[in-house]
Amino acid sequence: MKIIGFNIEELHAKKSFDFKRVAISTDILFTEVEKAKLDVLKDSEALKISFKFTVAYKDSEKKDSPEKNEVLIQGSMLLMVSKDESKEFLKSWKNKEIPKDKALGLYNVILKKCSVKALQLEDEIGLSPHIPFPQIRTGQQQNQ
């Protein structure tokens, strides 16, 4: 299995209001697996796997708060797979699953590509980053 294409098809960032205490969750959902037609592949097949990457911000003090801040990235990956791998993916997708031995690699690619884009969107609209960064102290603060 080789990833031969990665496309971001939709970006959405929403900041409704500021929370006193924020709970941040990240989720990746595979939304579709289908055969793709590529004439350049002779002995292999191509699959298009669509996904949704979401970073949700909720007020940790108000569990039932209907409004939320979020970053949503939808896209797809194009995979070059063998005929056996193609059958395995399509068979698993009948149960809305990705083959377990392939899922980790696909999650890692999505995290790598989408986390950077999500951090950029979070910064632009003033949301807390979904990845915690250590506080940097200046020399004066360290001496106090």
How can the largest sheet be summarized?
Answer: 4 strands, antiparallel
Low-confidence stretches: none
N-to-C SSE string, H for helix and E for strand? EEEEHHH
Please give the share of residues in helix.
25-40%
N-to-C CA distance? 55 Å
Give the amount of beta strand, in percent.
35-45%
Number of strands: 4
Radius of gyration: 19 Å
Rounded mean pLDDT score: 88
Class based on secondary structure composition and strand pairing:
alpha+beta
How would the global form be characterised? Answer: elongated
Number of domains: 1
- Strand order, main sheet: write it out: 1-4-3-2
Number of helices: 3
Structure, described:
The protein has 144 residues and is an alpha+beta fold. The chain has one domain. The protein has three helices and four strands. It has helices at 83-93, 100-125, 139-143; strands at residues 2-14, 22-36, 45-59, 69-81. A four-stranded antiparallel sheet has the order 1-4-3-2. A hairpin with an 8-residue loop joins strand 2 (22-36) and strand 3. The chain is elongated.
What's the layout of helices and strands?
Blueprint: E1 2-14, E2 22-36, E3 45-59, E4 69-81, H1 83-93, H2 100-125, H3 139-143
Antiparallel strand pairs: 1-4, 2-3, 3-4
State the main characteristics:
144 residues; alpha+beta; 3 helices; 39% strand; elongated
Brief digest:
The chain is built from three helices and four strands; from the N terminus they run E-E-E-E-H-H-H. It is an alpha+beta fold.
